[in-house]
Design brief:
It is a single chain. The chain has helices spanning 23-33, 45-65, 78-92, 108-119, 137-143, 166-176, 195-198, 247-262, 264-283, 311-320, 340-344, 349-353, 366-382, and strands at 11-12, 72-75, 99-103, 123-127, 148-152, 179-183, 202-206, 217-221, 288-290, 301-306, 323-324, 326-327, 329-332, 335-338, 355-359. The protein is globular, with a radius of gyration of 21 Å. With 383 residues, it is α/β, with parallel strands linked by helices. 40% of the residues lie in helices and 16% in strands. The protein is built from 13 helices and 15 strands. The strands form four sheets. Strands 2-8-7-6-5-3-4 form a seven-stranded mixed beta sheet, with helices on both faces. A four-stranded antiparallel beta sheet has the order 9-10-15-12. Strands 1-11 form a two-stranded parallel sheet. Bound molecules: pyridoxal-5'-phosphate (PLP).
Length: 383
């Protein structure tokens, strides 16, 4: 068909970028795209049904992270949740401005609004990481100031999969009454996430990372936490986030959250076994180094540097052979910048430029892994 984009990808190994929508979420969304199209904030029957579906989804998302339903606010995704956590806390502390700490390995959805807050007069400081990409709670304790208002440290890093000691950091911040945010976009559905065990006040989620739809997410806001609305307008989400609710998206997120929660331990075991096989194969390649492998990691992400290679060329060749993987480089102003995560971990520019991110999903199979390893070997032999 003219104009049709062919999907040449046979084996999708970039599940940290996004995941395929699960069939149950798709089926649950469909009635809210057509029949039950009502505005969830209107008073008549078609809308009351939409409102009931949103409330059901709020409970499903809350259950995934051990929160109360009224602590969940739906957003347009992880980026909005992260931006809001920073900007909303800053607004709530506007008079005193104050000091904000964010880890050096955060997603740009945290780093960029942190820069905005610096421009607006907040004292923004970066928390360094060790060679495995981990933040030390003692390092945070050392950096705290009497005017620290907010700390943001992600639960699982999206490039290397490394887990941060969120519960320990949360405990030390709670004693001092400092607001603590974690970006759990890569953790939810992959690891057990409990807002109470993690001692967090704010937590970001994104549905499309756990087989829900794109363009919908949530921010957990603990009851009583000082936080201002950022997106203003109507009184949706109890005045905390204005805008007509994305009912089909929210319904899909709820179902995906319920399934991810139910299948958590079986998925963890499966993804761990796939990753073990993948890493055994990668380690046998010349000059291979798995980044962050000495730290605890989520089961779905492997980041490998292949000495002397250029990641973008490897990824391009693998794409031609039918494999989708990510690289550790980001296209900034037309140039490929080495990953800020790998450079913060002390990896050289060349090692950072030689890194591939392979991220697994529950739809991947053992033969996907074996075929991928064969393809990498072929590409390396040609180079
Ligand atoms: C750790 C992390 N935070 C935030 C985001 C942004 O989420 P979204 O794509 O829903 O805006 C991503 C997406 O890659 C991510 O991996």
């Amino acid at each position: 068909m003219p104009g049709e984009i062919q999907n040449r990808t046979q084996v999708y190994l970039d599940n940290a970028a996004t995941t395929p929508l699960c069939a149950a979420a798709q089926a649950a969304m469909e009635p809210y795209l057509v029949g039950t199209f009502g505005n969830a904030s209107s008073p008549y029957a078609v809308s009351r049904n939409a409102r009931a579906a949103v409330d059901r989804a709020r409970g499903q998302v809350a259950a995934l992270i051990g929160a109360q339903p009224d602590e969940i606010v739906f957003t347009s995704g992880g980026t909005e949740s992260d931006n809001w956590a920073l900007l909303g806390t800053a607004l709530a502390n506007w008079e005193r401005r104050g000091h904000i700490l964010v880890s050096a390995v955060e997603h740009h959805a945290i780093l960029e609004p942190a820069e905005t807050l610096r421009d607006l007069g907040f004292e923004v400081e970066s928390i360094g990481v060790d060679e495995n990409g981990q933040v030390a709670p003692e390092a945070i304790e050392h950096l705290l100031r009497p005017n620290t208002i907010l700390v943001s440290v992600m639960a699982v890093n999206n490039e290397v999969g490394v887990c941060q000691p969120v519960a320990e950091i949360g405990a030390l911040l709670r004693e001092r009454g400092i607001t603590f945010h974690t970006d759990a976009v890569q953790a939810a559905g992959k690891l057990s996430v409990s807002v109470n065990e993690l001692n967090v006040d704010l937590l970001s989620l994104s549905a499309h990372k756990f087989q829900g739809p794109k363009g919908v997410g949530a921010l957990f806001i603990r009851r009583g936490v000082k936080m201002r609305a950022w997106q203003r307008g109507g009184a949706q989400e109890r005045g905390r986030r204005a805008g007509t609710e994305n009912v089909p998206g929210i319904v899909g997120m709820g179902v995906a959250a319920e399934i991810a929660h139910r299948n958590l331990s079986q998925n963890q075991t499966y993804l761990n076994s796939l990753r073990e096989r993948l890493e055994q194969g990668l380690k046998s390649l010349p000059g291979a180094c798995i980044n962050g492998s000495s730290a605890p990691r989520a089961p779905h992400i492997t980041n490998v540097s292949l000495a002397g290679q250029r990641a973008e060329s490897l990824a391009l060749n693998l794409d031609l052979m039918g494999f989708a993987v990510g690289t550790g480089s980001a296209c900034a102003s037309g140039a490929l910048e080495p990953s800020h995560v790998l450079t913060a971990m002390g990896r050289s520019q060349s090692a950072a430029r030689a890194s591939l991110r392979v991220s697994l999903g529950v739809q991947n199979t053992v033969s996907d892994i074996d075929n991928f390893l064969d393809a990498v070997k072929q590409v390396l032999q040609r180079n």
